[in-house]
């Protein structure tokens, strides 16, 4: 391999999400990241320039790069999550670009669900507003490990440090209380590129990284041996050929932690135990494998294991339960009501379930709780109590994003109704304010 | 896997960080296995192009040492590069696969489809594809589409529900959260599945290099008789090119994408090896579709319109 290829192959992957509206300069920031990292190619830029001109805009509208659907271009808004791809010599990036308005909360939640980092944008002139608090709450709810506060339009406040410091402190206090583990505030001007890719010449007082530097260096992994190891079985591989007459392997993607050959494991929900005899990592036999590797695990004993089962270490298996308490984001146009029969999809297992209760609805702007709403509609965040027909090996979402999350699905037409996170909504001690429901909530 | 030989930035990445190719590979394998676990009759669309070749490679790894539990489907436009058909047939034989072919030429011969004035057959593939899916009752159809290819594809789900006419409705897509793919569908409906959704053109080439995957020779620079149309180099052939006013010349070219001969353009290139191709792509200032696909230049929403009608 040539040096260039070797360097490129050795990069890691960071999935991150941006939330914000055109007013905050989100499209400008995204456009600048793509443009300045040379990820926008000539024909794409020409197409954007031509389209901008035909709409009577003088400067190329970089939002047209991501707003891929005709309806979005016609209305000049981002509706759906747009995935963008760019790379620097240090990292490959997958950016989930999501709209910031309250009526698109579900799209923000979708983008944040797989993100390891979220960029929240504020306008330096306005500071922390309702929308900022909502974006912080989405990041906290979805347990995004790293949050960047990009204080934009610093050029319009004369690059004043006190303005930045005040916003950064207010946001950091709020997000920390919600349990966001790591917050990095960066003063930027997306329009001029200050502190986006290149350090700003206008803000000597700022000694931290630019947005791109931070994206390139934020850790994408940690010590996985300290996590609860979880392996949902996807598929049983049994070749039954002359060459492999007795091969029986359990294929899946390690959802959390690490597994070793020789380790004693429990299979849930049956509770039977065995020992890992081999781990096949896509053609290579290994002694240890970790999340999110796709592997095939073989066990010493021929026990009954099928799709939907969970393999976990003997001393560290989750309890199985049929009663699920969770926070959900309602993502469908049809409502979710108390008493509704649904399907619950958790890891590789789908079971029948019934919505026993919807104790409260949550307003993300101020974290107020509204008791007994009766139903949840599109973009609502609420607490639910669900009873399943079969036991689930469920973790809390705080412990494991992959094995603590689930979907509620309409059994009649297959619609994805809600995205669920088991356990408490926030890592914080800050209890949401309970208040009576009143008119005017626009969720 | 090359996890052991990659060199990470020690300050920021723990020994548990995967390389981007390992991450993408693991994600794609997970998608293949989800489909194998949840669907009755999946099929892989296989054109002999690099993306479908990478899909097949990933499927082979996902189920090894067992055979792939799916058949292949090729929608044959009749305007094929002979090197690609030869590659297809050799691959099918090598791995003992089952191949279904839906032939655009058959539909034209039967009078069901009409040749377009411009001779392009890409848009004609939708009907044979849809009818093959209905006839064989395929419920999951793997495609090699990538979100980085085109802006309508950037909004596509990994699991994309299609009605009995194969139509795609971008406003009615299911939100896709975490790694939980919802494949529920009614009888007659099917799900298009895109395991390479998060790959870029460069990722595909780096993966081909890392895995030592063989490709049809037209992906590498070679001398060929071509003519210029709409700013692209097209291969002379029975499909209707060149016209009298289009002079034919010999050039060193290679293909960045492989599709219907009538609308797939070649690029000037002297990249005869994988390393040279990767270096060329890294330096390229054009997207692969922008450089090579006449059908995407038709309008701002050309791909969205074709996808709505059931295209790949």
TrEMBL record, chain A:
<dbReference type="InterPro" id="IPR041757">
    <property type="entry name" value="CysN_GTP-bd"/>
</dbReference>
<dbReference type="InterPro" id="IPR031157">
    <property type="entry name" value="G_TR_CS"/>
</dbReference>
<dbReference type="InterPro" id="IPR009001">
    <property type="entry name" value="Transl_elong_EF1A/Init_IF2_C"/>
</dbReference>
<keyword id="KW-0547">Nucleotide-binding</keyword>
<dbReference type="InterPro" id="IPR009000">
    <property type="entry name" value="Transl_B-barrel_sf"/>
</dbReference>
<dbReference type="Pfam" id="PF00009">
    <property type="entry name" value="GTP_EFTU"/>
</dbReference>
<feature type="domain" description="Tr-type G">
    <location>
        <begin position="11"/>
        <end position="225"/>
    </location>
</feature>
<dbReference type="InterPro" id="IPR000795">
    <property type="entry name" value="T_Tr_GTP-bd_dom"/>
</dbReference>
<keyword id="KW-0342">GTP-binding</keyword>
<dbReference type="InterPro" id="IPR011779">
    <property type="entry name" value="SO4_adenylTrfase_lsu"/>
</dbReference>
<dbReference type="InterPro" id="IPR027417">
    <property type="entry name" value="P-loop_NTPase"/>
</dbReference>
<keyword id="KW-0067">ATP-binding</keyword>
<keyword id="KW-0548">Nucleotidyltransferase</keyword>
<protein>
    <recommendedName>
        <fullName>sulfate adenylyltransferase</fullName>
        <ecNumber>2.7.7.4</ecNumber>
    </recommendedName>
</protein>
<dbReference type="InterPro" id="IPR050100">
    <property type="entry name" value="TRAFAC_GTPase_members"/>
</dbReference>
<dbReference type="InterPro" id="IPR044139">
    <property type="entry name" value="CysN_NoDQ_III"/>
</dbReference>
<dbReference type="InterPro" id="IPR054696">
    <property type="entry name" value="GTP-eEF1A_C"/>
</dbReference>
<keyword id="KW-0808">Transferase</keyword>
<dbReference type="InterPro" id="IPR044138">
    <property type="entry name" value="CysN_II"/>
</dbReference>
<dbReference type="Pfam" id="PF22594">
    <property type="entry name" value="GTP-eEF1A_C"/>
</dbReference>
Automatic annotation (TrEMBL), chain B:
<protein>
    <recommendedName>
        <fullName>Sulfate adenylyltransferase subunit 2</fullName>
        <ecNumber>2.7.7.4</ecNumber>
    </recommendedName>
</protein>
<dbReference type="InterPro" id="IPR014729">
    <property type="entry name" value="Rossmann-like_a/b/a_fold"/>
</dbReference>
<keyword id="KW-0808">Transferase</keyword>
<feature type="region of interest" description="Disordered">
    <location>
        <begin position="290"/>
        <end position="312"/>
    </location>
</feature>
<dbReference type="InterPro" id="IPR002500">
    <property type="entry name" value="PAPS_reduct_dom"/>
</dbReference>
<dbReference type="InterPro" id="IPR050128">
    <property type="entry name" value="Sulfate_adenylyltrnsfr_sub2"/>
</dbReference>
<comment type="similarity">
    <text>Belongs to the PAPS reductase family. CysD subfamily.</text>
</comment>
<keyword id="KW-0547">Nucleotide-binding</keyword>
<feature type="domain" description="Phosphoadenosine phosphosulphate reductase">
    <location>
        <begin position="42"/>
        <end position="265"/>
    </location>
</feature>
<keyword id="KW-0067">ATP-binding</keyword>
<dbReference type="GO" id="GO:0004781">
    <property type="term" value="F:sulfate adenylyltransferase (ATP) activity"/>
</dbReference>
<keyword id="KW-0548">Nucleotidyltransferase</keyword>
<dbReference type="InterPro" id="IPR011784">
    <property type="entry name" value="SO4_adenylTrfase_ssu"/>
</dbReference>
<dbReference type="Pfam" id="PF01507">
    <property type="entry name" value="PAPS_reduct"/>
</dbReference>
